[in-house]
Each structure stands twice: as structure tokens, then as C-alpha cells.
């Protein structure tokens, strides 16, 4: 099965539309909501309505967080450029505009990605149109999702959830929260499941909003669950605990969401490169792609190195999404894309600040903001270090117990 990592012709109109939105709707309000942290960007309501309309008409081709789903038949051997590829390419363009605003988009939360990834058809229909945040991290652990202490105990027709979640993106604004909890701590990773908990459920409380370095337009919440009763039909996927399968069921969500986060890093870094090229040109430094870097200005040589690193991150991201569209196992590739794009995103944006000197460091341009925004993309959905550990396990054929 051949893969072509150019943007497919059928997605180009979607990518162009996303770029226009990023340039004309997100960039103009970017600084405003960076300064006004926790203030809801009301301009996004109209944009979200436009995206909903495109989705209803089929014109969006499955782009956005709700597009990350493995549809089709395993027996179908034809090459597909589907919803996952549409999602990562459009998300990258939106983050060329503003990452924090993309993360604030109604009905495009990471929880929506989780629902799209693992929900059954009935759940997909029931939760259609909802805005879902995702709650994984807890106060006592960061990247080790298997260390979850939040519990879900079956009581009749409901699960009773108790625990605390931190760093919940869109935790205050969303309609519901996809909560990761364990059905039985003694059974380890295999007992971890995800639940859709609707806002307004008794016992669910947003304790506070965090003040952050970047993505300040996006609200990041601490949420507690105290005897919160959730209908058992809101457990995503199978309620059965399969010890042999282990954590694979829960981790399948990440196979689809990590390429999305990688795409965010790709988009944010591309914005920095584009502006830096313009600023260097204004300073009399041209980037010459036909001349060896060693024969060019030091700033131009550095720019070429940054751009080549960025291209590697972009191609890995497209590969991971393409594999999902074609129903190929992509856990390794999803982690490779997230690790590379996350690291490159931080390196590119900070290096662009350095290359542009006082202009890069000041608020005269958005370069300093993109450097702040990009850092979280190397952290959430699994840190750089965790991604490298996952990649090492996959390459060496070792389990999590054998390589820690």
C-alpha cells in the first residue's frame, strides 16, 4: 500500500479554508485573548457554527477533533486519504493562526477526539454536537496514565466516580468531560476506562482555573468528582476488563489524538518560520534554497536547519494520520510524530525569537507568544520523555514492565 505525503487534492480546499480562517479570524484576536486570560473568545461561536454547518453538509470531510475515527472495512485494501488526514492538516492551519484559540473551539476538544476514537455508534449519535474536554492527569502523577487513582464503581445503572483531575483543557467551558478512571485498582492498567460525565452532574465541581505560560485563551481547570453518578451507558467502549489486552483499549485514544497535537506543533512552528523569513528579508537576509547553508549568512543557515527539522515533524504527523485512515496500527508512529513535532515546535519557535532579536522578544510581533504556546505541545498528551520511552519499547519489542 503506497503512501503519498503531499496534501491530497481532495483536502486542499479544506486546508485553504482553514488557512483563511486562521489569518482573518484568529490572528486578529490572538493578542487580545492572550492578555485577557480566562475570558471566553466569543468570536469563536460564529466560527464553530460555520464548522458545524460544513460538517452537516459533508463539506468538512471529517476535519477537526470529531474526525479522528477509524472507519471502513479491514478487508478494503484501497488507499484512503480520510478524516484523520483531513483533521491534522486543517488543525495545523488553524494553529498557524492561534493554538490557544483552536483549543478553545466549541465541540473541538480533546474529549471530542476521545469520543470519536472509541465510542460505539449509539454513543456517537447521542453525544453528537456536545463539547467534551478530557480529564486524565491527577495531582500525584503526570505522564503515567496507568497510575490513575480516580475510581468508578458500578452501582445499579450508574457508575459512581470519585477523584480529582488537573490540567483539564476547556474544563470550565465544555458541556461534558471524558474522565479516565479505574474500575478496579487491583487489576492494574486493564481496568482503566473512560466515561462521559455531563456538566451539572451532582458531585462534579470546577475548583479553579490555572494561570499559564501559554495557550492563555484556553481555560485549564482543576475538577473534583465526589460520588458523581454517571449512567453506565456513558462508559466509552467495552465495560469488560481484559487483563490480556491490558492498557491497549484506553491507549487507543492516544493513537488518534497524538497526531492531532503533533499537527498543532507543526502549525505553530510554521507560523514562526513564515514570519521570521519575512523579518530576515526585511533586514537584508535572503534564504537561498539553491546555495549550501555554509555559504550563506549564519541566520539563513540556521533558518534552513530549522525548516528541515520542521519538515521531518510534518511528514511524521501525516504518516501517523494516514495510517489511521488506512486502519493500520500506528501507536509507534503516533508517538514518533508527537515526540518529533513537539520537540521541533519548541526549538523552532524559541530559535525564531532568537533570530529576530529584540523584535522576537517583544510584543511587537507574535513570535514570543508562539514560543510560549508551543511548549505545552511537547508536554500534554504524553511528554517528550514518555514518547521516547514508548518508541523505544516498540522498537525493541519490550513491555512497559521490561523498560521503564
Q: What separation lies between the terminal Cα atoms?
A: 34 Å
Mean pLDDT score: 91
Largest sheet composition: 4 strands, mixed
Encode the helix/strand succession as letters.
HHHHHHEEEEEEEEHHHHHH
Number of strands: 8
Please compute the radius of gyration using only Cα atoms. Answer: 21 Å
Strand content: 5-15%
Q: What is the 3D form? A: globular
CATH topology of the largest domain: Butyryl-CoA Dehydrogenase, subunit A, domain 3
Architecture of the largest domain, according to CATH?
Up-down Bundle
Q: In percent, how helical is the residue content?
A: 40-55%
Count of discrete structural domains: 3
Short description:
Residues 59-81 are annotated as: Disordered. 48% of the residues lie in helices and 14% in strands. It is α+β, with helices and mostly antiparallel strands.
What does this structure look like?
With 404 residues, the protein is of the alpha+beta class. It has twelve helices and eight strands. It folds into three domains: 9-126, Butyryl-Coa Dehydrogenase, subunit A, domain 1, CATH 1.10.540; 132-236, Butyryl-CoA Dehydrogenase, subunit A, domain 2 (Beta Barrel); 248-396, Butyryl-CoA Dehydrogenase, subunit A, domain 3. It has a four-stranded mixed sheet with strand order 1-4-5-8, with helices on one face. A four-stranded antiparallel sheet has the order 2-3-7-6, with no helix packed on it. A hairpin with a 2-residue loop joins strand 2 (151-155) and strand 3. Helix 3 (83-97) packs across helix 7, helix 5 (110-118) crosses helix 7 (248-282) and helix 7 runs antiparallel to helix 11. The longest helix is centred in the middle third of the chain and has 35 residues, at 248-282. The chain is globular. The two termini are 34 Å apart. The model has no long low-confidence stretch (mean pLDDT 91).
